[in-house]
Every structure is written in C-alpha cells, then in structure tokens.
Specification:
By secondary structure, the protein is an alpha/beta fold. It has 3 domains: about 60 residues, Vcp-like ATPase, Chain A, domain 2; about 210 residues, 3-Layer(aba) Sandwich (Rossmann fold), CATH 3.40.50; about 60 residues, no CATH class. Helices cover about 35% and strands about 20% of the residues. It is built from 12 helices and 15 strands. The protein has a 7-stranded mixed beta sheet with strand order 9-8-7-10-11-15-12, sandwiched between helices. Strands 2-1-6-5 form a 4-stranded antiparallel beta sheet, with no helix packed on it. A two-stranded antiparallel sheet has the order 3-4. A hairpin with a 5-residue loop joins strand 5 and strand 6. The termini are far apart. About 30% of the residues are buried. Bound molecules: S-adenosylmethionine. Keywords: Methyltransferase, S-adenosyl-L-methionine, Transferase, tRNA processing.
Length: about 375
C-alpha cells in the first residue's frame, strides 16, 4: 500500500487541505499547520480548532463566525488546482476510467500529463498495486502536474513515473513491448502515437483517446483503422446537465458545460488477428458515390414532394405573391405578381424534371 493514498478521510490532521465555507458561501482552501491561523475580515480561525475535528465539522473563528470545514473531494481539487494545460474535466475522467476499464493493479501509460488532473484519477483507480507511466513533452507542465499530484496526495506516489519527452520517442525505451494494459492519450495529435501504443499494449489492452474536435476525432479513427492492429474504434461524448431541485422549482440548470471533448476507444488485437467483421466489410477511409448517395433526401428519410403537393405549393406561392404585391392597390402590381407567379411555376416545372427536396422556390426570392 502506497502511503500517499491514506489521507482522504478521517479527522483532520496537520498537512491536510481544508475547504472552509463561510456564511456567504465563499470558499477558502487552507493547509493545516499546528499553531497556524486563517485571517479574514471576520476574524481569525485557529488551525488547531480544525485539527482533530471530524471532516465536515462546523468550526468558529475568534469573532464567532462559523465555517463549514471539509476535505476537498478530488473533483473539487482538480477544478481549482493550478493549471499549465487544459485539464480533463471530472465528467470525462469518470468516463475514461469506465470505458478504458482502468482496474486496480493495471499498468497504465498516459500522455500528455498536462496539469496532472487525469493522472490523479488514474492513480486512484489503479491503487497501490498498479503502475502509472506518464509522459509530457513540456517540462514546465510536468512540474505543474507533479506539484498538483503531490499536493493532493500529500506525497509523490512511488508507483508513478513522469518522463519528460515526446511519447513517440520515449515510450519504447520506458516499457517492455506488450506489457501495458491501458494507454490514455490526451494530446493534439494522437494519430502520431498509434504505432508505439500498439507495440506497448498487451493483446486485448485498451487505448482511449480524449480529443477536442471532430476533425481530430475523424483523423485518429481513420489512422487507427489503417493500422489494422486494433478493434473497430468506438466514439462518444459525455454531456452532464445539472438540475435545480428546490420545492416546486425542479428543472435543469440554465447553464451547463456544453463541450469538452470526445472519447475514442479501441482494443489491441493479438498479433495477426483479423476480426471476422473486418473480413466481411473492409474499412472505408474515403467516400464513394454510394456514400454521397446515402446523403440524398430520400436516403435520409426526408419526404420528396409529390407532383401534386408541388402544384399545391405553386398555387399557394402564386396566391401569396399576388396578395403581397396587390396590397398597395397599385394596378401594375397585379401584372408584376402574375409574372412572379409564372416564374415560380416555371421553376417548379423545371424542378419536376429532376425533383430535389428543398428546391421549391420561395416567391420572395424569385
Ligand atoms: C490537454 S493537455 C493534457 C491534460 C491532462 N490530461 C490533464 O488532465 O491535466 C495535453 C498535453 O499533452 C502534451 N503532449 C502533446 N503531444 C505530446 C506527445 N506526443 N508526447 C508527450 N506529451 C505530449 C502537451 O504538451 C500538453 O501538456
């Protein structure tokens, strides 16, 4: 058991981080020291009042102001810790743990380490018997991550290595081929790392990529298929909508985090294995006439207008044009309106030869 994993519950001790919530709901985080003081304009809170108290206790400052003292959860910590690079949000970290099937005792590779948010979730999931190898090409980010992980856990875990360098160059010398259970890629260009990832993963091992844009998602999916070394990739995104629940006012919150990233997972095939589905249906990395055909309105389930409904639309357009243009009692307007309606009818007649949904002319555009 790694000592670093001991500090997440029980009465407060020296060195623990504590979130103090005051009467107005403002939150301050302090690290407890024997004899330490937390100064506010509402008086002084002695750390010694907090040390030894149960988690989630109410403690009182010298002026009689009460604070709720709670140990930050991992979610609280990652959302407020110093950031070098953008972090993986808790909603996505939870999905990464589930979809990549991170288990106690697993050997996991992670790149890049960024601010260390995901490292903390991974370390927690693999427990003291697992190993996490993290790679980061920017040494200042690696330093931020090491600082954050050590601050939360109270020490730098013995089962965590941080290598400064590009994954493509560093991974082959850091792990034995086929020895890694899970690989987590959170970076701009995961497709550049697929070969080294495939070499490092054990057969059946899981690769998960966290990517921010659809263009990256498409690129990594196609690159992964081209290797022929993985199962068919699965893609998803996770949206969490919080709710306001108070009395009769029970509704979704007005604001939410709209987009963070996409997840793509695939499993490493055994050497030489070709899944039966792939034998039947070769992977398509380009689009053909058949693909384009699949986007026609009929194929998408949109109804094509029948000749009858098209004629009805023409009559309605005619009438609308006439009504609009006759409204100022200008006798010439009737003539113009008739000619507009004729143009509408001509356009529809043309389109009847090759009916296309959405080709019904708008009289105001004619
Ligand atoms: C979005 S951040 C990772 C955030 C991190 N997962 C977290 O939760 O805090 C992406 C990081 O990947 C690093 N990176 C990009 N490509 C890399 C590569 N090929 N090898 C190692 N690190 C890489 C970048 O320097 C950057 O710090």
């Amino acid at each position: 058991m790694n000592d670093a994993f001991r500090r997440q519950s029980g009465p407060f001790r020296e060195g623990d981080r504590v979130q103090l919530t005051g009467p107005k709901g403002h939150l301050n985080t302090v690290t407890l020291e024997a004899g330490g003081e937390f100064h506010t304009h509402r008086g002084i809170l002695q750390h010694d009042v907090v040390i030894g108290a149960p988690d989630a206790s109410v403690v009182t400052s010298s002026n009689g102001v009460e604070y709720l003292a709670m140990r930050p959860l991992l979610t609280d910590f990652v959302m407020s810790m110093p950031r070098g690079a953008a972090i993986v949000y808790p909603k996505d970290a939870a999905q990464i743990l589930a979809q990549a099937d991170i288990f106690p005792g697993a050997t996991v590779v992670e790149a890049g380490v960024g601010s260390g948010a995901l490292s903390l979730w991974l370390l927690r999931a693999i427990g003291g018997t697992g190993v996490l190898h993290s790679f980061e090409r920017r040494d200042e980010f690696a330093d931020v991550a090491i600082g954050n992980v050590s601050a939360f856990l109270g020490a730098r875990p013995a089962n965590w290595t941080v290598t400064v360098g590009d994954l493509v160059e560093s991974l082959p010398s850091a792990v034995e081929p086929g020895s890694v259970d899970r690989v987590v890629l959170d970076m701009l260009a995961p497709w550049e790392c697929l070969d080294v990832t495939a070499d490092a993963l054990t057969p059946g091992g899981v690769l998960i990529c966290y990517i921010a844009t659809v263009t990256q998602l498409s690129r990594v999916a196609e690159a992964l298929r081209r290797t022929g070394l993985f199962t068919e990739p699965q893609s998803s995104e996770t949206m969490v909508r919080t709710w306001h629940v108070e009395g009769l006012a029970v509704r979704p919150d007005h604001r939410m985090i709209g987009h963070t990233g996409f997840l793509l997972t695939a499993r490493r095939l055994a050497p030489g294995a070709i899944p039966p589905q792939l034998k039947r249906r070769p992977s398509k990395t380009d689009y053909s006439d058949a693909d384009v055909e699949a986007w026609t309105p009929g194929a998408l389930g949109e109804r094509l207008p029948t000749d009858k409904s098209l004629r009805k639309t023409v009559r309605e357009a005619h009438a609308a044009a006439k009504a609009a243009m006759s409204s100022d009692d200008d006798p010439e307007a009737d003539v113009v309106a008739d000619s507009v309606a004729d143009s509408v009818a001509d356009s529809v007649a043309d389109s009847e030869e090759a009916p296309v949904a959405g080709a019904i002319p708008n009289p105001t555009d004619v």
